[in-house]
């Protein structure tokens, strides 16, 4: 079963940890929440943990809408501390993290 937890058959959790170091990160987190309604977001000292079952999507268009300026997906690298899952897609329009197997 691709991307499911072996014992339960439910989608495996994927996630990212982001530095809580600038105003831009706040808008990226808001965009992730908007595009991933099942995501759980925890604010810790200096770190934001985002988890969701199955697939996490970061859409350039949503980030730009909230940020109020053009945003390129490679800028995500400035905030990310770690992630779990596989980067299935990372292009100019979106970043997709999910388990491939």
UniProtKB/TrEMBL annotation:
SUPFAM superfamilies: Monooxygenase (hydroxylase) regulatory protein (SSF56029). Pfam families: MmoB_DmpM. This is Monooxygenase component MmoB/DmpM. GO terms for molecular function: monooxygenase activity. Belongs to the TmoD/XamoD family. Signal peptide: none annotated. Transmembrane segments: none annotated. It comes from Thermomonospora curvata (strain ATCC 19995 / DSM 43183 / JCM 3096 / KCTC 9072 / NBRC 15933 / NCIMB 10081 / Henssen B9). It comes from the Bacteria. Keywords: Monooxygenase, Oxidoreductase. InterPro entries: MOase_MmoB_DmpM, mOase_MmoB_DmpM_sf. The keyword Transcription does not apply.
